[in-house]
Amino acid sequence: MPSFAALTARLRFAAPGSLALLLLVAVGAGPALAREAVAFGDGLLWRVERPDGEPSHLFGTMHSADPAITTLPAPVEAVFERADAVLLELVMTARTGRDLRDAMTLARGHDLETLLGADLYARVATVGRRYHLPPRQLQRLKPWVLTMLFSSPAAELAGGAGRPPLDLTLQQRAERRRVPVHGLERVAEQAAMFEELGPEGQVALLEAALTRNGQVDRMWAQMKRAYLARDITAIYGLMIEQATGEQAALMTLFLDRLLDRRNVRMVERMVPHLARGGAFVAVGALHLPGERGILRLLETQGYQVTRVY
Questions:
Q1: I need a labelling partner for 209 at 20 to 30 A (CA). Which of 22, 57, 183, 305 fits?
Q2: Distance (Å, whole) CA 298 – CA 131
Q3: What is the DSSP letter of 257?
Q4: Which tens digit of pLDDT belongs to each residue from 185-214?
Q5: 112 touches 143 (CB < 8 A)
């Protein structure tokens, strides 16, 4: 059964951008990948620079421990090895792990069954068995944590045992080289985007995840293929579809908090590092494209953005 340490390693908010991928599965992305043009939607590695400064690079990640994901393509590897600093959405430390555990668990004296009611909890317990979650642990988790967990294949969690996901792989490699690693967000900030939905919003997302759990393997594989093909346009299109489908109001609100607001915050915090040059910034792939994405925000601040890979 997964320990809380394993759950926090797998559900480190990442994600994801990777988190956005998880939520696309949860709310039921359609079987066909969308093909509308999206700014900066084709590519995973981008060079950003000012005319009078040294370049830095932004890399879009997917939160997976699959070796096909964690093995960096040659152009990304070359840039990563030359980096003077590495920036990630969240840097994992012992303190971060404790903060994540606290953010994921219900307050003392509260339990999931009381929050959800007997019928919905029974559905959660049934799906939870596929993820080897014992009732005692299940009762302690908040609804949004289970939404994330049930939105990825059980095999993804089991298959990653002993292997860190891509984001953590980058952190560990940088630390071994003694390259400074900086976080762009804090645990409390990432948890807030769920907490602000309130109990009703969190439960609505959980119900959608339960309904779609049987399709998770197929849809996850579909999105992984798109990611490896550097086709972020396709995945971005799926996200936009959710803002006009079922639960449109909830998804529009959540995606604004999940991507748009965080993009602004992360750009503010990465700019001082970009000004010095030589930075390698790794964030979820869906944070990069679109008119409100990180790359467009940097472009409006005078950075030249060039696709590398």
A1: 183
A2: 40
A3: I
A4: 999 998 888 898 888 989 988 998 898 899
A5: yes
Q: In this predicted model, what pLDDT tens digit does every residue of 265-281 receive, in sequence order?
A: 999 999 999 999 999 99
Number of domains in the chain: 1
Q: Which residues of 127-159 are buried (b: 16+ CB within 10 A; e: fewer)?
A: bbeebebeeebbbbbbbbbbbbbbbbbbebbee
Q: Give per-residue pLDDT as tens, 103-141.
A: 999 999 999 999 999 999 999 999 999 998 888 999 999
CB 137 within 8 A of CB 108: no
Domain that holds residue 149: 4-307
pTM, whole model, 2 decimals? 0.89
Structure tokens at 173: 């490699």
E-strand stretches of the chain: 45-49, 56-61, 85-88, 181-183, 279-284, 304-307
Among 23-37, 67-81, 106-120, 283-297, which is the least confidently predicted range?
23-37
Q: Using alpha carbons, select from 265, 293, 297 the residue that is nearest to residue 192.
A: 265
Q: Give, in order, the Cα–Cα distances in Å from 201 to each of 40, 113, 142, 231.
A: 31, 17, 12, 30
